[in-house]
């Protein structure tokens, strides 16, 4: 993958710490030659993001809370000042009230439904609106999703509904932006122990289940997601848009428990 993103400038949103999927992608994109800009959500995360940014010679273009349209505008204005254009955006952002990532979906409150969909789905469209203006010669938009969009998963609840909407929005955005040579794709990552994932009930069980039942008999790493992201962001994937690429050790093809799997 060496050099496939040379000369490309990309914004990576959703870095919280060195376990974040955004970190796996930012590192891999940098290694492939891209220049990187990063955002952070709130002061507490700024303290974690700045040293990570320094490791990649990345620009920190400011605080961005996607519930605030003005803060998204601000970040894209900073990117325009910095580079005058933009080649890719990686959106690694999701949120739901932890209390509703356990138990039954049917008990979801309207308030948390609205918040989860706004942060985990609409924000990608909000970002696409701003990115379109800066991608004058085409570009690539990438978001992160999970298999809980396609099938029921324990505890994933409203996030499954939000990810289903996010995956549909990938297809609609791809169709809208294709004539401007802007490609829109998602990676459906297998479960990885991150800050966001720790909010999901019984997450350890989900990790073990995937490890025992995925065709590759293991889970995936943020570096593996990062390298697949580089492919989607690069000209190697110039014919690919509207796609949901599963980077999940093959778990999505499995229809039944591996009879050799130990009990969890
Ligand atoms: P993470 O906690 O490292 O990242 C989540 C990020 O979302 C954080 O940086 C947080 O600041 C950001 N965020 C939340 N609310 C925000 C808001 N209002 N404004 C701006 N940013 C906000 O966890 P992660 O697992 O790396 O999550 C990244 C993406 O990957 C998410 O979309 C998640 O759903 C997806 N994903 C994760 C897994 C997994 O198992 N970890 C699997 C598939 C998909």
UniProtKB/TrEMBL annotation:
SUPFAM superfamilies xref list: NAD(P)-binding Rossmann-fold domains (SSF51735)
Pfam families: adh_short_C2
Active site as annotated: 146, 156
MF terms in GO: enoyl-[acyl-carrier-protein] reductase (NADH) activity
InterPro entries, per database record: Enoyl-ACP_Rdtase_NADH, NAD(P)-bd_dom_sf, SDR_fam
Pathway where it operates: Lipid metabolism; fatty acid biosynthesis
Keywords: Fatty acid biosynthesis, Fatty acid metabolism, Lipid biosynthesis, Lipid metabolism, NAD, Oxidoreductase
Reactions performed catalytically: a 2,3-saturated acyl-[ACP] + NAD(+) = a (2E)-enoyl-[ACP] + NADH + H(+)
Entry's EC annotation: 1.3.1.9
Leading EC class: oxidoreductase
CDD domains recorded: ENR_SDR
Residues where NAD(+) binds: 14, 20-21, 41, 65-66, 93, 163, 192-196
GO biological process entries: fatty acid biosynthetic process
NCBIfam families documented for this protein: PRK08159.1
Family: Belongs to the short-chain dehydrogenases/reductases (SDR) family. FabI subfamily.
Protein name: Enoyl-[acyl-carrier-protein] reductase [NADH]
């Amino acid at each position: 993958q060496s050099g496939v993103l040379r000369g490309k400038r990309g914004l990576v949103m959703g870095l919280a710490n060195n376990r974040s999927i955004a970190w796996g992608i930012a590192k891999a994109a940098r290694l492939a030659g891209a220049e990187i800009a990063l955002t952070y959500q709130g002061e507490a995360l700024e303290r974690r993001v700045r040293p990570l940014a320094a490791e990649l010679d990345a620009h920190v273009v400011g605080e961005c809370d996607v519930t605030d349209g003005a803060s998204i505008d601000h970040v894209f204005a900073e990117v325009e000042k910095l580079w005058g254009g933009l080649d890719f955006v990686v959106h690694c952002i999701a949120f739901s009230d932890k209390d509703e990532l356990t138990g039954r979906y049917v008990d979801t409150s309207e308030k948390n439904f609205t918040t989860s969909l706004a942060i985990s789905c609409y924000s990608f469209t909000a970002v696409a609106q701003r990115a379109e203006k800066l991608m004058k010669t085409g570009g690539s938009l990438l978001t992160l999703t999970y298999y809980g969009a396609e099938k029921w998963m324990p505890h994933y609840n409203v996030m499954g509904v939000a990810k289903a909407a996010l995956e549909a929005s990938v297809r609609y955005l791809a169709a809208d932006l294709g004539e401007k040579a802007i490609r829109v794709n998602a990676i459906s990552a297998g479960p990885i122990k991150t800050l966001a994932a720790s909010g999901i009930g019984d997450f350890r069980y989900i990790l073990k289940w995937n490890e025992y039942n995925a065709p590759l008999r293991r889970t995936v790493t943020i570096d593996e997601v990062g390298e697949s992201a580089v492919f989607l962001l690069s000209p190697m994937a110039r014919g690919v848009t509207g796609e949901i690429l599963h980077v999940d050790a093959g778990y999505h093809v499995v229809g039944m428990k591996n009879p050799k799997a130990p009990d969890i």
